[in-house]
């Protein structure tokens, strides 16, 4: 990577997939991590900075947390202004915002859940894209890996198989993810020819977290491990522009699909 280090932005920091992404991206990038509050950001950033896999890197990354409501144009605009002030290229941005997975019969559903699904899905994804795509476009052709290969600016979305397989009782979650998938496909077709790789990673299983330890506890590798999921995102980012992938799904070996 050329110096100074380029920046990677991860929206929706939490203890799961986004934490795994931060761990992986820190090997090559300085990090801008976004969450709604410092209550979420501070402990996770402290954990990242003390992680032996990060603190003993040859080039220790700078990790900056910015409280941001990524569904708010005003909030995200203020964050992007701060990023621009750093004067560094942004070559990777990930929208990994929770859509509030909730199962409910349709006639019993709270319409607020549908609204929230859209807000964190397609709407929030669009707000994020409007903010970060100019940064990514500015970096096209300007950053290289240590090997001399060009770094292809990349916008990645965390989706779900509910975006094309809407099961009963999952209407609110599925509608939000369908809208996010549609956005991602449209952006991939529009901005791919401009040099920005847009792709979606569809999650099709429970993520291995402290709160999910009791689920499938007797099945080895039965849940998604954040560090392993992060490798898929990284592989997408490292793809050469002669063979870009738009959509990929990840699931454990025992998951029925």
Automatic annotation (TrEMBL):
It comes from Lipomyces starkeyi NRRL Y-11557. InterPro entries: NAD(P)-bd_dom_sf, SDR_fam. Transmembrane segments: none annotated. This is Oxidoreductase. Pfam families: adh_short (PF00106).
């Amino acid at each position: 990577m050329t110096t100074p280090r380029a920046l990677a932005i991860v929206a929706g920091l939490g203890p799961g997939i986004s934490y795994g992404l931060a761990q992986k991206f820190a090997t090559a990038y300085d990090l801008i991590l976004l969450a709604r509050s410092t209550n979420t950001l501070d402990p996770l950033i402290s954990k990242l900075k003390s992680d032996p896999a990060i603190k003993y890197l040859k080039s220790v990354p700078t990790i900056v947390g910015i409280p941001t409501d990524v569904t708010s144009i005003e909030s995200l605009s203020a964050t992007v202004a701060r990023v621009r002030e750093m004067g560094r290229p942004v070559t990777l941005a990930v929208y990994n915002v929770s859509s509030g997975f909730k199962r409910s019969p349709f006639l019993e559903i709270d319409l607020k859940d549908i609204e929230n699904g859209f807000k964190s899905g397609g709407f929030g994804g669009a707000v994020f894209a409007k903010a970060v795509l100019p940064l990514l476009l500015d970096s096209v052709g300007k950053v290289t890996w240590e090997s001399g290969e060009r770094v292809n600016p990349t916008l990645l979305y965390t989706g779900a198989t509910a975006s094309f397989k809407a099961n009963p009782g999952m209407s609110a979650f599925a509608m939000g993810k369908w809208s996010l998938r549609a956005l991602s496909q449209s952006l991939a077709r529009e901005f791919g020819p401009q040099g920005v790789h847009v792709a979606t990673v569809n999650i099709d299983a429970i993520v291995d977290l402290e709160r999910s330890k009791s689920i499938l506890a007797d099945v080895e590798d039965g849940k998604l491990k954040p560090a392993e999921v992060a490798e898929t995102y990284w592989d997408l980012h490292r793809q050469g522009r002669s063979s870009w992938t738009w959509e990929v799904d990840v699931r454990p070996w025992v998951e029925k699909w």
